[in-house]
Every structure is written in C-alpha cells, then in structure tokens.
C-alpha cells in the first residue's frame, strides 16, 4: 500500500468544497429564464378531486401556468412504475394501483400533488397556490395496515381487492412444519419494525430545461442513479427518447435510498418545461420531504423459532405484514421479499425456513428502500428472536449464537442466499473482548447499587450487499440488471479521469476510487479525477445503493484499468524495446523488470495520443471501458454489542459502551469506512430509540416536522468502538464486501436487546422512548 | 414567508411607537418561534419590530437580593453570567439545557415568556421563584402573568423590559427533554425563598401551561428533601398526552423531576 493506495486513511478530496460551502447542489443552479414550481398537495389522506379552480391564481403577478393532474394524464405522461415484479403464492402478479404523477381523480395520501403552479419566483408560485381552489370530496381513509386488511376497510385501489398488494411465500413449508412438530422448544415473538422518514440533509430538488430547437431535455436532479432515472423517464414515462434526455445529478446531500426513486416532481418539471417553454425548478422543503420522500421499514411480524434439545435451531416460521403506503414505489416490492426474507437465516444454520409476506396498501406515504432495505428488518427479527430464545432457554445469548453459527463456507441457506465466506466467531469474539463481556455481571451489580438498570445486548447481523448479480435478480423478477460500468481515460499529459456509473452522495468516491488508481499506477491521487452523475459524460451506470459502489463499481474500474494497463504496457515495451511481459508499473513509471530502463506514464500517454511511433496495428489513444457484473451478492457480517443503563424513574436510556466488530472484506479507506459505520449505527440507534413516522387513524401525519420526528443528534449517541475482522470476499478481485448499510442493519437489535435485558421484560417495541420503557418497566 | 416590513428599534419607546403604526405588528426578540411560524406562512405580520438590538433590554444586574435579567438577553449570556451563577445557579443550569446551541445563541428570556409555550423552560423558573415581569407600562407578578397556553397578561403593544427574581435560599431545576424539540417533556423548578416559602412549578406537563404543584409544595414545606415527595401522588387528569409522553408518564415525571430538582437545589 502506498501513502494514497488501498488501505490508506486518505483525507477526503471532496470535503474541501463541502466544508467551505462550495458544493454545487441542484438548488445552487440557476438557469436563464428559470421559473419556479410549487405543488398543490392534498390535505386529505383519501379524497376525490371534484374540481380545481385556478382562475384567480392565473391572474396573479408572475404566474406562468397552473397545471393539473388531468392535463398530465391527457398528455400521456406514464404512470409511475414498480420495477420488480413479485408473484403471489397463488400465482397472480402483484396488484399495482395506478399512480399518475399528479392525481386527476383520487388522492390517496396527505401530500400527494394534484396540481402545480409555475411562476417567476418561488414566493409568487406559493402565493398563487393559495388562490387555487381544489374541491375535494373526502373518503374514508385507513392508515393502519392491520385495519386495512380487515373486511369493510376503506379500499384504496380497484386493482387491489382487500388492499392487498401480494401474498408471497418463500421456503419449504412442509419441512418447516416437520421441524416444529419435532421441536424440543419453540420460541415465539411479535415485533414491529417502525416506519422511518429518511431525512437526507438536502431535500429533493429538480430543474428541467427543455430546448425546443433540439427537442432535448436536461434534468438536474437529486438522484442516486441518474442513468436509471433517464431510462425510466424515457422508457416508461414517455418524456423523451434517451438521446434527447440528459440527466445530471451533481453534488447530492445524502440519499439513504430515498433518492433512488424517480418521483412525480421530476416528471412534472420535465413535462411543464416543455409546456411553458422555460426551465422549471422545484426545490422541496422539509415538510414536503416528510410527506413525499419514500419512507422506510414499517413491518409487523409474528415469528416462531424451533430448537432441538441441544439448543440447535431446527426451523423458522415468519409471517410479515409490510405497509407499502398508498402506491408501489419504484423498488418497493423487492424490499420485504427478496431483500428481507432471503436474509432470515441470519448467521445461523437453520435447516428449514418458511416465510410469508403480505403487502398492504394504506393511505400513507409510499414506502421503499431505506438504508439497509429489508435487511435491517430481517436482522432485527432474527436477533430479537435469538435474544428471546436465550432468555427462554436460559442460556447465555452469545453462547446460543455460537452454538448455531454457520462455520463452513460456502453455505446454502434455505432462502436462496449462498453465503460465500465469513468468520462469525471471529467478530463475536472481537466484540465480546472489546466490551469485556465477561465483566458485565459485576458492572450490572454495581449499577444496581447506584439505582440504575444496566443491560447488554448482542446483535450478530448479516446482509447481502454488492447488489447484485444481474442473472440472479432477473430470475427473481427485477426489471433491470445490476452490474456497473467504468471508463478510464488517460489524458495525453498522463492525468487520469475515471468515469463511473456509481454515484457519490456523501460516500467519498472521489477519494476511494482514486486510491485504486494510486495503488495500481503509483501516481498521486491529485492526478486522478472521478467523473460521475451525468448521463452525457458516463455512458451508463446503475448508481449507488445496496452497499454496491466499491464491490461492483470499483471492480468495474479495476477491469477498465487492467485493459488500459495492458495497452500502456505494450506501448511502453515498444518504446523501451523490451518484451511486454517484462514491463512492470511502479511509482508512475513503466519499467523493464530487473533493469534501470523506464518510461514515465505521461510519456506513454503522450505516445498513445501522438501516435507517431506505436506498435504496428495499434489504435491511438489510451482509454478503456468495462462492465462488471458480480457473480454473487457479497455478505458483510459482524457483531454489535451495546451496553447501556436505564433510569427506572424516567425510562431514559444512557449508553455506556457500543462496540462494532465488522467484516467488510478489504477496506479501501478505513477512515471513510469508519464514517460509514458511524452514520449507519446512528441511524440504527435512531430507529431503536427515537424515530417513528406516525399517522393518526385518518391518515394524517403526526410527525411531519423535526419538532415531532426525533432525529438522532450527537448527544443521543455514544462514542463507538470499532474494529474489523476480515475475510476477503471471494466473489470480486478486490475482496470487497461493502460497508454502507451495516450499521443501520445491526444496531437496533443490539439496543433493544440491551434495554430488554436491563429492564427484565422481553416485549418492547421501537422506538424505545423513555415513556414506552417506563411503562414497560412498571406494567403489571 | 409573506412579505413584511422589518424595523430595528433602538429604544423601547421607539419600538412601542413603531408597533402602534403597523396594522398587524409583531415584536421580534430572538425569533426562535416567530420566524419559523412566519416561514410556514402561519403568521403574516404587517410589521416586525426587532427588539434584539435595544441596549436598555440587554444585560443582567444583581443588587442585594434581587437578580434582574433584561428581556432581550440571550440564553447563552444568561447561562454564562457570573451574577446569575452566583445568585441563582438553577437559572444558569436551566439555560444550559434549553433547546440547543443555536437556540441558546438567539433565544431570549423575554421572548420565551411572552410566547408562553406550555413546554418552555423559563415560565417554570419565574413561577417557582415568584418573579416579577417588568414591562414598559407596569410590573406583573409571574402568578398573574402566565394565563394558560400561549396566553399572558401582556396587552397589545406592551413590551417586556426585564424579569426581576428575588434571590432564593435554594432553587433547582430538572427537565426531561422532549426528544425531538428539546423543549421540556416535563420540567420542574423548585425554590425555597429566604423567608421559607416553597414554590414548585411544572412546565410541559399541563394542558393549561405552566402550573404550580401544591401537593409537592406542601410536602417540601414540611421537609425539604427528595424523600419527602415519595408519598405524593400526582394525578394525570388535565395533563398533556402525545406521542412522546402519556399523561401518566408526565405525572410520574413531575414527581421524579421534582425529587431530582430538590436534590440538585443550591
């Protein structure tokens, strides 16, 4: 490893612009003649739109247009799609309710747009929006999914009787029933996985610019995957053919999944820009973020685990209800199915698993992938079950896990996934040592003497990342492949541009991706730049989510680098009159091994572009591209242990220690990895203790501002004690597994296991607010 | 935000006269409530009169047994003031747990009590300490000043100039912070005056705003100690209930926070 190569703690290149306020976000962009959009959103969770009177608004100063849902439908802009087809157990396809970008007839959640005002300024648009009169006929609404599936509940979509999206199953029901019939012990648990609002720091925004002469659109948008946005806008929403639509995702301030999806506001901005002949900008505010960014989680689950007399797990049965909100968002269908139930084996040998997932429509904001996406729900369930089992079976929770760990790899689980490698004992050992697990009983006794209830909670998570092998996901219903592309351009002076289909919205790609180049060529990272987020620059890409950028995106860069290096070696060998096989690359030079003959990279590059003296038949230039499609998911795993104290008087939780022992395979930049783990852990702790997107029975959001929705702050979380136990991923040449989601996947179970240990009661829902913990302590 | 006309007053008299000229004037102190409400278009004052730069509304004075905090003094300056720490350290502590650093650098004592949010911290301190609110027109006892949710004795256009606190023998404040807003989910201020009078005020708990807690006052009058409150029962009737705390929980918090405030009282 060089000072800037793989494994080096290189300071992030991009932070200079971010921390000096020089980032360029969508809202920073101003175009000549730009107009501003303000959406008129339903205040009702369920209503008929009987009429929209915009006559007064159209007379107001600076108002360019008021456009409605009926107009966008009339203009044949396509309904929003869900890109992953799921089939119910009876063989029927999932039931998609039609979702136009603005509602022409029926609104189904608070915040759904019915019209948009376009004006010369944001404030004028807002003023005019108040003059638009929308006549609604309120309909009965249902926000709770258990209520939604009952007979007689208000119905959302004619396409989906009983508000059911699908009833999907996985695993061998017969084998699972047989395991339960023979079980020595059965452990049962009901858990709720609370709904979360993502709250990226930068709200969503879009600018659409239609060029009538070229019949060409440019869309600036807060996207994690601009190429996918272009594909969907082009192929499904009838905006424009791909070569007439450029999508740019410049600096993006966090996504956590919520910016994967193509939202109605981008569609409306594009459509409106063509209609009015001027650029249209929309920047969401925080209220709109709460109301319209796809939410995360929201499961209710009953699970049972069967054990034999030796405390070995013999079977697992799971029934989950998943709330999809009012419409099926872009990848929502896959989250509680293939991203959730396929991880139900956890880190354990479980011979038989059967899971059933019922998807439900409710009059709430649509739910889709949010950091972890299905895997946090699976990990939380399994790790709460393991803790519950240890208490019921009266064995040490760490030992119960050890008894059931998978230790032979590869390991085929009964729920599709084939784990390639791992060492679960190593991470458990590291975490137990870091927190002094053996010394806990003494610490608990001391805390008790001080009037505090101390608890310890273990969580051994596993996730499927590096999303994903295209053939495999295609066979499971995905509408896209999940490979990644890269291009390496060596300029004539030897500087290097890496074009990637991955998208950085906080992850630090501009640094880590350069580190691979530094590692291979021995050039400083200052000579390398990363180009991403623009469909005119990068040919194609699938974007960033599912902890895929290093495992998939960086591997694509490696493949392109190898091609480029191969050609450069030929040029160097030709110039040095040596054999190509004898050329090695060191410190930015191509050397003839065992001699002092060398030619520097800039000279090789220059030779490639002057083309005065290239090997016979070689094309000029030094630019190569590659597509990389992984052969399997990657399987990051680890152990988190949380030690905390509960104040019995108030129910308030205070952290004592939090240790994380992760196996992410090879680390490119350990400092950035630590940042990713810190952020993920905070999100997991936020879910466990603070965050909950709540609706009242009529579908009115109760938590649509930071005054009510509790985001974790620095003083809500402890300092984290991180370590790594590494097994290299055999599935990609760099041995990378991915680190972006782990913290959010593993943390919440550790926290709840610790609180329930502290208070001596097993049933406690998230978020474990002080009120809820206090009531649980004092419940009869 | 709707259009408004901003005025920066340089004296209390000028502020009062500017207020009278506007059709729907509002005074702006630290802006920690008014500005977010205006941004959400839930308030549309014709004129905003900024009191924040008026010199006579700034600062802290300690003379004998009276601590005077001028109305536009920001929380941070109250928190770090040596006279406050010496005379009534519980007030210094209260400001240290009020909101977050951004709020503490902008928010003012006058703005807090004029708004009288049912979960604000300062109303509890005023009520428990038997403070007097000074305005440009009169003096009002804390007891008379706070009149329920977001309601005070202030007349239209009346400006708070200072709060006068009698220095107590002992006082303490403890608060369970609202996890999202950092207001008081429930906060209790306990004080024993130099003449031996005991007053206990709770904020964030009651549907009617800041309130005295007579049962705890009686227990502490008999025996100033946390244990004295052990036997007290607080009814959940009339208490606030929301997603962050049931009425029963708040009833419990009144008792627990009072005990801890007594333990911390100096």
Automatic annotation (TrEMBL), chain A:
Which Pfam families would you find in this protein's record? Ald_Xan_dh_C (PF01315), MoCoBD_1 (PF02738), MoCoBD_2 (PF20256)
Q: Which residues form the Aldehyde oxidase/xanthine dehydrogenase a/b hammerhead domain?
A: 20-140
**Sequence intervals crossing the membrane:** none
Matches recorded under InterPro entries: Ald_Oxase/Xan_DH_a/b, Ald_Oxase/Xan_DH_a/b_sf, Ald_Oxase/xanthine_DH-like, AldOxase/xan_DH_MoCoBD1, AldOxase/xan_DH_MoCoBD2, AldOxase/xan_DH_Mopterin-bd_sf
Per the record's keyword annotation, is Hydrolase included, yes or no?
no
- Record key words, sorted: Molybdenum, Oxidoreductase
Tell me the superkingdom of the source. Bacteria
Q: GO MF annotations for this entry?
A: iron ion binding; oxidoreductase activity
Task: Say yes or no: keyword Kinase present.
Answer: no
Q: Which PANTHER family match?
A: ALDEHYDE OXIDASE 1-RELATED (PTHR11908:SF132), XANTHINE DEHYDROGENASE (PTHR11908)
This one is known as Xanthine dehydrogenase, molybdenum binding subunit apoprotein
Q: Which organism is it from?
A: Bradyrhizobium shewense
Automatic annotation (TrEMBL), chain B:
Q: Which GO terms describe its molecular function?
A: FAD binding; oxidoreductase activity
* SMART domains given in the database record: CO_deh_flav_C
Q: Supply the InterPro entries for this chain.
A: CO_DH_flav_C, CO_DH_flav_C_dom_sf, Diverse_Substr_Oxidored, FAD-bd_PCMH, FAD-bd_PCMH-like_sf, FAD-bd_PCMH_sub1, FAD-bd_PCMH_sub2, Mopterin_DH_FAD-bd
* Pfam families from the UniProt entry: FAD_binding_5
Highest taxon of the lineage: Bacteria
Q: Which SUPFAM superfamilies match?
A: CO dehydrogenase flavoprotein C-terminal domain-like, FAD-binding/transporter-associated domain-like
Alphabetically ordered keywords of this record: FAD, Flavoprotein, Oxidoreductase
Q: Which residues form the FAD-binding PCMH-type domain?
A: 1-170
PANTHER family named in the record: XANTHINE DEHYDROGENASE SUBUNIT C-RELATED (PTHR42659:SF2)
Task: Write the protein's name.
Answer: Carbon-monoxide dehydrogenase medium subunit
Origin species, per record, is: Bradyrhizobium shewense
Lineage in the entry? Bacteria, Pseudomonadati, Pseudomonadota, Alphaproteobacteria, Hyphomicrobiales
């Amino acid at each position: 490893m060089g000072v800037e190569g793989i494994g080096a703690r290189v300071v992030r290149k991009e932070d200079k612009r971010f921390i000096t306020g020089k980032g360029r976000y969508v809202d920073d962009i101003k175009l000549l003649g730009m107009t501003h959009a303000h959406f008129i959103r339903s205040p009702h969770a369920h209503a008929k739109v009987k009429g929209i009177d915009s006559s007064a608004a159209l007379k107001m100063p600076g108002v360019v247009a008021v456009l409605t849902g009926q107009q966008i439908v009339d203009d044949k802009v396509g309904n929003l799609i869900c890109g992953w087809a799921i089939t119910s157990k009876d063989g029927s396809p999932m039931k998609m309710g039609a979702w136009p970008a603005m509602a022409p007839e029926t609104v189904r959640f608070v915040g759904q747009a019915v019209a948009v005002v376009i004006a010369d300024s944001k404030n004028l648009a807002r003023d005019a929006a108040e003059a638009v009169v929308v006549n609604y006929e309120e309909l009965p609404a249902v926000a709770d999914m258990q209520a939604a599936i009952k007979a007689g509940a208000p119905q959302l979509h004619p396409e989906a009787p009983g508000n059911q999206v699908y009833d999907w199953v996985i695993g061998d029901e017969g084998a699972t029933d047989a395991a339960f019939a023979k079980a020595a012990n059965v452990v049962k648990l009901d858990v709720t996985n609370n709904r979360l609002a993502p709250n990226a720091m930068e709200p969503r925004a879009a600018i659409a610019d239609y060029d009538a002469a070229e019949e060409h659109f440019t869309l600036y948008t807060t996207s994690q995957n601009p190429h996918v946005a272009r594909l969907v806008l082009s192929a499904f929403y009838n905006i424009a053919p791909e070569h007439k639509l450029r999508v740019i995702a410049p600096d993006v301030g966090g996504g956590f999944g919520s910016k994967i999806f193509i939202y109605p506001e981008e569609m409306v901005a594009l459509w409106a820009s063509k209609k009015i002949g001027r650029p249209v900008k929309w920047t969401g505010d925080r209220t709109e973020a709460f109301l319209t960014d796809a939410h995360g989680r929201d499961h209710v689950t009953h699970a049972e685990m069967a054990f034999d007399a030796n405390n070995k797990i013999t079977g697992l049965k799971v029934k989950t209800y998943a709330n999809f909100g009012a419409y099926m968002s872009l990848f929502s269908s896959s989250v509680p199915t293939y991203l959730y139930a396929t991880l139900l084996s956890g880190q354990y040998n479980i011979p038989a698993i059967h899971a059933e997932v019922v998807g439900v429509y409710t009059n709430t904001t649509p739910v889709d992938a949010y950091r972890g996406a299905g895997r946090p729900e699976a990990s939380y369930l399994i790790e709460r079950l393991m803790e519950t089992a240890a208490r019921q079976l009266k064995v040490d929770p760490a030992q119960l896990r050890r008894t059931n760990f998978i230790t032979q790899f590869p390991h085929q689980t009964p729920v599709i996934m084939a784990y390639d490698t791992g060492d679960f004992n190593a991470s458990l050992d590291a975490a137990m040592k870091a927190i002094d697990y053996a010394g806990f009983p003494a610490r608990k006794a001391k805390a008790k003497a001080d009037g505090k209830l101390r608890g310890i909670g273990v969580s051994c998570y596993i996730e499927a990342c590096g999303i994903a092998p295209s053939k495999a996901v295609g066979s499971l219903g995905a509408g896209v492949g999940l490979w990644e592309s890269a291009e390496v351009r060596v300029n004539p002076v030897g500087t290097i541009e890496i074009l990637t289909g991955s998208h950085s919205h906080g992850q630090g790609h501009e640094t880590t991706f350069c580190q691979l180049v530094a590692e291979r060529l021995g050039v400083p990272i200052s000579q390398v730049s990363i180009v991403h987020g623009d469909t005119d620059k990068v040919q194609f890409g699938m974007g960033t989510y599912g902890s895929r950028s290093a495992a998939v995106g960086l591997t694509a860069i490696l493949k392109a680098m190898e091609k480029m290096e191969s050609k450069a070696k030929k040029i160097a060998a030709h110039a040095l009159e040596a054999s190509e096989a004898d050329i090695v690359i060191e410190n930015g030079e191509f050397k003839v091994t065992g001699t002092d003959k060398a030619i520097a990279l800039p000279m090789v590059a220059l030779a490639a572009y002057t083309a005065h003296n290239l090997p016979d038949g070689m094309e000029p230039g030094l630019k190569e591209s590659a597509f990389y499609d992984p052969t399997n998911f990657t399987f990051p795993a680890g152990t988190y242990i949380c030690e905390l104290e509960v104040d019995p008087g108030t129910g308030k939780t205070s952290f004592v220690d939090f240790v994380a022992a992760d196996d992410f395979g090879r680390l490119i930049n350990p400092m950035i990895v630590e940042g990713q783990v810190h952020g993920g852990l905070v999100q997991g702790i936020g879910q466990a203790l603070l965050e909950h997107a709540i609706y009242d029975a009529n579908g009115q959001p109760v938590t649509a501002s930071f005054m009510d929705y509790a985001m974790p702050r620095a003083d809500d979380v402890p300092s984290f004690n991180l370590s790594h136990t590494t097994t290299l991923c055999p599935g990609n040449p760099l041995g990378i597994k991915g680190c972006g989601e782990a913290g959010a996947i593993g943390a919440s179970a550790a926290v709840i296991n610790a609180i329930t240990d502290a208070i001596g009661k097993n049933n406690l829902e998230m978020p474990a607010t002080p009120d809820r913990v206090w009531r649980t302590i004092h419940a009869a | 935000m709707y259009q408004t006309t901003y005025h920066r007053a340089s004296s209390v008299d000028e502020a009062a006269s500017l207020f009278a000229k506007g059709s729907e004037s509002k005074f702006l102190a630290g802006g920690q409530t008014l500005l977010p409400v205006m941004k959400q278009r839930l308030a549309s004052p014709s004129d905003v009169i900024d009191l924040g730069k008026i010199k006579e509304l700034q600062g802290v004075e300690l003379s004998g047994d009276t601590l005077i905090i001028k109305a536009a003094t920001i929380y941070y300056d109250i928190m770090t003031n040596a006279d406050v720490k010496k005379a009534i350290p519980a007030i210094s502590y209260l400001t240290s747990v009020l909101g977050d650093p951004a709020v503490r650098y902008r928010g003012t004592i006058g703005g807090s009590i004029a708004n009288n949010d049912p979960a604000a911290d300062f109303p509890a301190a005023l009520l428990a300490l038997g403070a007097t609110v000074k305005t440009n027109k009169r003096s009002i006892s804390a007891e008379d000043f706070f009149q329920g949710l977001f309601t005070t004795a202030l007349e239209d256009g009346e400006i708070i100039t200072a709060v006068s606190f009698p220095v107590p023998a002992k006082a303490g404040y403890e608060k369970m912070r609202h996890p999202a807003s950092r207001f008081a989910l429930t906060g209790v201020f306990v004080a024993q005056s130099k003449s031996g009078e005991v007053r206990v005020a709770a904020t964030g708990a009651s549907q009617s705003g800041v309130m005295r807690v007579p049962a705890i006052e009686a227990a502490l009058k008999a025996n100033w100690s946390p244990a004295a409150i052990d036997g007290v029962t607080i009814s959940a009737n009339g208490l606030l209930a929301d997603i962050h705390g049931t009425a029963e929980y708040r009833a419990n918090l009144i008792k627990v926070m009072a005990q801890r405030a007594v333990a911390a009282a100096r």
